[in-house]
Amino acid sequence: MEVATRTVSRNRCSCCRQEGHNRTRCPHDAATATRLREEYNKERREFHRALVERALRPQPRTPEAEWRATVHAQVVDMRHRLEALAWSPLPPVDGSGPTVREVKIQEILFDRCQEIPEGLYKELMDALVLRD
Ligand SMILES: [Zn+2]
Fold first, then answer.
1. Alpha carbon of 119 to ligand 1 centroid (Å)
2. Average pLDDT of each block of 10 consecutive residues along the chain (132 residues)?
3. Rounded to whole angstroms, how far apart are CA atoms 102 and 56?
4. Cβ(116)–Cβ(108) under 8 Å?
5. Is the pTM of this model over 0.90?
6. In angstroms, what is the span from residue 16 Cα to ligand 1's centroid?
7. 45 alpha carbon to ligand 1 midpoint, in Å?
8. How far is the CA of 42 from the centre of ligand 1 (A)?
């Protein structure tokens, strides 16, 4: 990437695309300049295609990555179960427990927490347990 950036920023002759001179000092005749320019353009195209292909290629998952993904899924599942347990609608004896509506909103927030900015998620969760 760095090499490419440097190459682009260098002065190139607009006739032959070689470095170190400009078109008014181009030592090549028209036919040679055209051939050199086409070779250069082809090289650039292939370089870019290789970059794009590399970017699009799915990353091979290492056994470690697989393991992490499995553990992560288990942790998320376990956390979900724990949260669900913690929020299971305990009968609001003195009116201070979460209402069915609050529990439902907490469940929705938890399920979609990946889609919500962390700060907002925390604020909403805190707001749901406020008691006057
Ligand atoms: Zn030139």
1. 57
2. 48 90 93 95 90 77 80 84 71 64 84 84 81 66
3. 43
4. no
5. no
6. 4
7. 20
8. 17
